[in-house]
């Protein structure tokens, strides 16, 4: 059903148009009447075209919200196509002068209320665009959100709480937040409260859209549906503003962060070139290290000064020494020599066997014998009173 045309305001604008001859406003000539009829016909055709274009753009936006290929070229093309349709809707709305700051909500026809959400849809879609310059994308989204809230504020569609949030945002957008960032409990309470409010709004919107036949015949129900939809968009706009300002602050912090200076490492693994070019995880030194006496590094510096002691040997002698060597280190002492060295260093515990031996009981020590006898009798009595398996018969615990 095409939206209703406000004939009184339309005729007043056409009569006041400079294209009309400057005649009396009370009586119209046949040429003026023909001009008015043709102009109203054009506006009705443009309004019908606007409605179909707006419905098509919203359908494309709904499809984009359910797609998962957000990083593909086809997805970006679809986003750009939907943005182009909404921008064309904006152009037609401006051409038809559907909204004015001098009007009230009662002056707006029911079919035109839905076009108040154009800036909201553009802000949502602009965030799905290319991410090469993320900050510029966020700035464009913020601009569309501001225009959306400004228009609804002019028509007094913002509640007292939303109007207070909007004034807080316009006073200082960079510090806008729904709850203090350093108060986790407050942010959680605000998040839970707004989630419940959004759930109630969606349930109300679902209830209003349940009977499509009634919406097509009852103008009041359609008007309530569009207004409920705008209230949901307002609620989601403030949540988006909170998130966008957080992301912008993080991008600004990253952009202004100083270049980190690599501190000198104290890790001995890095100082010893672990994992480097000449690194090896072998426990035994390589053949070249054995030939060099276990030393690494250059023998001479750039000026020819010796860096470590070395022995001048010809290449033939080095190769001869390494021909019949084993691939691992050979033992340099026997086991007995090793134990003697450990004894000398004091690494072997003394008296271990003597401390573990129990002394034999002297038979002449009657008192000690009586104690052992009484201990044995007590144990026998305990075993008789508590036979094996008589404890946890129910297998509990």
Automatic annotation (TrEMBL):
Region named Disordered: 259-282, 350-397
TM segment ranges: none
Top-level taxon of origin: Eukaryota
Pfam family membership, one: TAP42
Biased composition (Basic and acidic residues): 368-380
Single GO BP term: regulation of dephosphorylation
GO molecular function, one term: protein phosphatase 2A binding
Single GO cellular component term: cytosol
Protein name in UniProt: TAP42-like protein
Origin species: Penicillium canariense
